[in-house]
Amino acid sequence: MAEGRKVHAVTRGYGGSLSGPLRVEATHAADQTGDEALLLAAFMPTWVSGDRAAGARMAAASGADIILLDDGFQNGALAYDLSIVVVDAWRGFGNGQMIPAGPLREPVSVGLRRADMILSIGPEAAQKRFVKTWGSQIDLPHVVGHLQPLETGLPLNGLPVLAFAGIGHPEKFFQTLRAMGAEVLATHALADHQPLSDGLMVRLLREARMNGAQVVTTEKDAVRLAPGLRSEVMTVPVRLALEDTAPLDAALASIIAD
């Protein structure tokens, strides 16, 4: 942060074999810590801990001034200074029903009463859909954001590609590639966090070669690739851009002041 605060992340490490608490190191693999932990560790010190409170204590003991808890909104083991509900603008809260009838862990009204802010992510059309469907239930600061490709200099415009993604909504990645001008010849939507087995990758690479295409994927998927395959798969990174950071800036400033 610009204020010089030391920010650490604590995550469960979904999909990894290690339950921690432990600090994610460059020597860890995705099957140990989970793919999301590796992504976070590229930006800040990150801890994997099935026990979130234990992970937070280790982060604090290691000098963290601010602890960013990944996917911990329903975790009651910690006290939160700021709770942000992050939602895909197109999907919203699904059908509004709880598991197994829908995607939610608790009713929308209950969750939003406990939240301090909501962040909806998606393009303009998706944002309009979200506000139309759920706007009447939102009575808290609403920050709007979208994912934009990071400029890497990679030649995507006009490039024939075979794309695969094992994220929550793979079609969003495929749409991003098309918007960047790539000629998307084939897409493969995998399950979120799906292991990239040797058999799967051999099949995808063979299909790409037969069609004269470059294999492309997301940053999250790339960290699950075997090291020997990373030179054969192009990674297309994206970053979150917020339309108005003022509500978030004000909330963070208030926390820091306290």
First-last Cα distance: 16 Å
Share of residues in strands: 15-25%
Q: Could you report the average pLDDT, rounded to the nearest whole number?
A: 92
User: Which class of secondary structure composition applies to the elements?
Assistant: alpha/beta
| Strand arrangement, major sheet | 2-3-1-4
Helix content: 25-40%
The CATH topology of the largest domain turns out to be Rossmann fold
What coarse outline follows from CA principal-axis ratios?
A: globular
Multimeric state: single chain
Rounded to the nearest angstrom, the radius of gyration is 19 Å
Q: So, CATH architecture of the largest domain? A: 3-Layer(aba) Sandwich
CATH class of the largest domain: Alpha Beta
Q: Which ranges are low-confidence, i.e. pLDDT below 50, for 5 or more consecutive residues?
A: none
The total domain count is 3
Q: Helical region count?
A: 9
Question: SSE order in H/E notation?
Answer: EEHHEHEEHEHEEHEHEHEEH
Largest sheet: 4 strands, mixed
Number of strands: 12
